[in-house]
Amino acid sequence: MTAGLEAIPEAARGALAMLAQARTRVGRSWRARAGDRLSDAVELARLVAFERSIIAHSPFATLVTDAGGTITSVNDAAARMLRYERDALVGRVTPLVLLEPSQLVARAAALSDTRHERVDPGVGVLRAMAECGPAGKPEWELVRGDGTRLHAALAVSALTTGAGAFAGLLLIAYDITDRKRAEAQVSHRADHDPLTGLPTRRLLADRLGAALARAEQAGADAAGGRVGVLMVDLDGFKRVNDEFGHTIGDALLCAVADRLRRAVRAEDTVARIGGDEFVVVLGDLTTVADAEGVARAIEHALDGPLLLGLEQSLARASVGICVYPDHGRTADELLQHADAAMYGAKREGRHGHRNFVADVPLGEAPRAA
Q: How, if at all, do strands 71-74 and 61-65 pair?
């Protein structure tokens, strides 16, 4: 059986099929003991040469091992893709040298669970993959000879002797770096605002959920047991759009996004959730005062004038502060309460920050521009 075929191009699948047919014919030749031994030997030599030719000329990286896992054959495509000299691989190492160790351990654990028997995190993983057939996960991060990493789809097939005994493994790898890059770009576009490049609501929800899980595990009384959520809404943004146009308004939003990113830690999240509204998630806080300090840093970062094309503008904002678990325990509560606190900051004159106060009704006043 062969694992990972669904991720390998049709041409590679054809090569595997041809190799399987050649192996079958070799087996039949050896089992035809009652026939002419010389004819058998000639047929065997011809089929072995045919098999080697397929491997040598395959455009896909192809490796063959013996029963112990040592590499016995590597084609030129594999040497180029893996950035190894063939002599450094053949007869010297197993394919394990090409596999990311942590991924190998994880695959061994997953296969052990699926098969209900221990799979050794070594060549046993590859044998188990071959036995799993197309259900085996084909994507791997390969380690090249120069230490760089490569995303590849890996098909593994078990080789057998004429008598049907395990004789080794056939591995065909296909570079999927371009595909993974395209997938990452699609994922990034789905989770990030096209104007500012900031995370959108979906990624914000993931990041906030992760921060709350860490805080809950740490406990509110421990360092890092709090999460801050800041709702940042620009003051007077509608006026900028009306007076200078949407091009200047968009430039202002991008400039604000950049200043917000620089005002917080690299591990914090700044998201844009609507027109001129941003959310900042601060993980691993110890006190409510930590969140207040970040709010002041944001106000300071936005204080300076911005040159937007030929126009100069000020970017000022009202900031609402809500902290887990003091002001709410769920993501929805925290966002709602931070929004309510931001309303309060606008009612108090804008260009400032305000903590959530539980006894102030939510949505008491309409949003100010």
A: antiparallel
Element (H, E) at 161: none
CB of 285 within 8 A of CB of 291?
yes
Per-residue pLDDT 10s for the chain (369 aa) are 444 444 444 555 555 555 555 555 555 554 454 455 555 555 555 555 555 666 666 778 889 899 988 999 899 999 999 999 988 989 888 888 898 888 889 989 988 998 889 998 888 888 888 887 655 557 888 999 999 999 999 888 888 877 788 888 988 898 998 888 888 888 888 899 999 999 999 999 999 999 999 999 988 788 889 999 999 999 888 888 888 888 888 988 999 999 999 999 999 999 999 999 999 999 999 999 999 999 999 999 988 777 666 556 667 899 999 999 999 999 999 999 999 999 999 988 878 899 998 755 554 444 444
**192-355 is classed CATH 3.30.70.270:** yes
Domain positions in the chain are: 2-181, 192-355
* Rounded CA separation 314/45 (Å): 82
What span, in angstroms and rounded, lies between the C-alpha atoms of 267 and 111? 34
Instruction: Assess contact for 303 and 191: CB atoms under 8 A.
Output: no
User: What's the length of the chain?
Assistant: 369
Query: Cα–Cα distance between 353 and 20 in angstroms, integer?
Result: 70
Assess contact for 151 and 176: CB atoms under 8 A. yes
Instruction: Provide CATH code, domain 2-181.
Output: 3.30.450.20
Rounded to an integer, what distance in angstroms lies between the CA atom of residue 102 and that of residue 99? Answer: 9
Task: Count Cβ atoms below 10 Å from residue 92 Cβ, excluding itself.
Answer: 10
Closest listed residue to residue 258, CA positions, set 207, 205, 197? 197
- Give the containing element (helix H, strand E) for 357: none
Q: pTM, whole model, 2 decimals?
A: 0.60
Residue identified by tokens 């899980």 is: 213
Sequence letter at residue 178: D
Q: Are 44 and 12 in contact (CB under 8 A)?
A: no
Residue 132: name the closest of 161, 97, 107 by CA: 107
- Omega cis (within 30) before 325: yes
How many whole angstroms from its chain centre is CA 225?
A: 27
